[in-house]
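Reminder to self: tokens first, then the designed residues, so the page reads top to bottom the way the pipeline ran.
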């Protein structure tokens, strides 16, 4: 387990469209550390795949992040990184995008869990 992730105050990290991230921020999950690093990335038409990859790698390496919440349409852009990710903490949680329905067949983590549990669809 990552140091700090099991302690009180562990963070959610967010990667998604502006409305989704703003909703989470209004619910109080936003954080900015003393170096001005945030726990979220708002993805829009100007956001490059490289920026998404860098944020994902940064969030998954932080000791204070317990869960990385990522919109599925954004996750599809970095699917190669998500498929290689093998740590339990921080956990990766894919959520529906604002304008696109959730497709459980594309969710890498859900597929792994179903395989481990022997659930076939």
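Designed residues (121 positions):
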């Amino acid at each position: 387990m990552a140091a700090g992730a099991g302690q009180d105050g562990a963070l959610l990290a967010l990667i998604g469209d502006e409305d989704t991230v703003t909703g989470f921020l209004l619910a109080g999950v936003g954080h900015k550390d003393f170096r001005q690093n945030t726990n979220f990335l708002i993805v829009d038409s100007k956001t490059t795949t490289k920026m998404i990859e860098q944020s994902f790698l940064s969030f998954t390496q932080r000791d204070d992040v317990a869960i990385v919440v990522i919109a599925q349409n954004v996750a599809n852009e970095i699917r190669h990184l998500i498929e290689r990710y093998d740590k339990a903490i921080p956990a990766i949680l894919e959520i529906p995008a604002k304008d696109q329905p959730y497709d459980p067949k594309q969710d890498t983590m859900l597929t792994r869990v179903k395989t481990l549990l022997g659930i076939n669809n």
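The chain is about 35% helix and 15% strand.
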